[in-house]
Amino acid sequence: MNNIGLILGSSRQNGWTRKVAQALTELAPQGVALRRIEVADLPLYREELEEPSPPEQWLRFRAEVREVDAVLFVTPEHNRSVPAALKNAIDIGSSPDDQSVWERKPAAIASHSPGRLGGFGANHHLRQSLVFLDMPVLQQPEVYLSEVEKLFDAEGRLIDASAREYLSGFLRAFSEWVLRVTTRR
How confident is the model at residue 78 (pLDDT cuts 50, 70, 90)? Predict the structure, then answer.
């Protein structure tokens, strides 16, 4: 069983990120459990908050990331980068320096936008951080969901057949890759 943490780059309650995450959860192949790890409640990272004891939300977040086999980031693009909530979560997880929860944890990224680039800037900007954090990132297939609003119905269900097929294949490939990467450790 692959236990994959699902980290959403946006904290909007009814935004596209949650709809994409819900579709991915529904499309997960047998033997794959996608578990959301919330980032919206995390206080901004400041090193001085580590002592004498970090905020409870930081401790919860770090523990939840440690418990999963891999991480799937689902993110929109903000100003050709990732949203602040996601960057904050990355910083919290990488601290203290000698206790990073990210090290050697397999990752994949599914980005989206209402534009035609599908969150390309956010996807690649996030990849830069993940490389630094020593997270092996799935290279292919890549997920850039462009014109995301056309993929869902008014109730937030993924209705685009080609997107469903592509995301299903992406999840199978990620799951198989996670097994290969984690058995090499």
Answer: confident
d(CA 110, CA 19): 12
pTM of the model: 0.95
Domain ranges of the chain: 2-183
**What are 97-106's pLDDT values in tens digits?**
899 999 999 9
Counted residue by residue, the chain has a size of 185
CATH number, domain 2-183: 3.40.50.360
| Residue 10: pLDDT over 70 | yes
Region 67-76 average pLDDT:
97
The tokens of 172 are what?
């199978």
